[in-house]
Every structure is written in C-alpha cells, then in structure tokens.
C-alpha cells in the first residue's frame, strides 16, 4: 500500500495540510515524506524536541501556498499535473474521415470486392493511425 501511495502524483493541498499540521503536532515533517523527501522528514522527526521543525513546517506551508500548481508539479511530480490528466487531443475532422473510410471499406466488403481478411487488416490500420 505504501509503495502505491508513494508512486501517486502529489497533491499540493495535501502537502499544505500536512505542513500546517506539523506546526502544531509533534509529528513535524510528515509533509516531507509525502512530497518524496524522506531524508528531510527524518531530520524533522529527529529535531521534534526543538521548535525548528515546527517553524520550518509553517514556512514550507506558506511556500507551498505561494507556488502555483505548475511549479509544485514541476518540483514534486516531475512536471506531471497532479489533478488534471491531459487527454490526447482528438481532431473531429480526422475521426470523421476515419469513420468514412471504415464505412467505405465495409461497403466494399459487403459487395464482395475485398475479402474479410483485407477488410479487417485495413480497418485495423486506420484505427491504429487514429491513436
């Protein structure tokens, strides 16, 4: 479970909440584990008896707040947007052209001008190009 959690894109709001929680709880540094900086998280936990990690957590919460989502994603998600997954752009004209070509192939198959094998081969080629 922990491995799958660490592989997920990091959410800026969760990082901010964890950093803010570190200012008032003895578990300062949990946000560092969340954003993929476990060594810093250990340092924060080792310094739990001092006010240093609590102040640093507060400063980092403000720092996370001041950065926009793109900066956060670039720094902690390798540039991958955590909330929006970009779908590949679909050109309606291209989809329409491919649909027309498949209909034409089907018409040729029904008229017996091409075999079932040729139809399936050409159809797959057209659909592969669409992706």
Automatic annotation (TrEMBL):
It is a multi-pass membrane protein. Residues 9-55 form the TM2 domain. Residues 101-127 form the SHOCT domain. InterPro entries: SHOCT, TM2. It comes from the Bacteria. It is found in: Membrane. Keywords: Membrane, Transmembrane, Transmembrane helix. GO terms for cellular component: membrane. The chain crosses the membrane at residues 14-35, 41-66. This is NINE protein. It comes from Lusitaniella coriacea LEGE 07157.
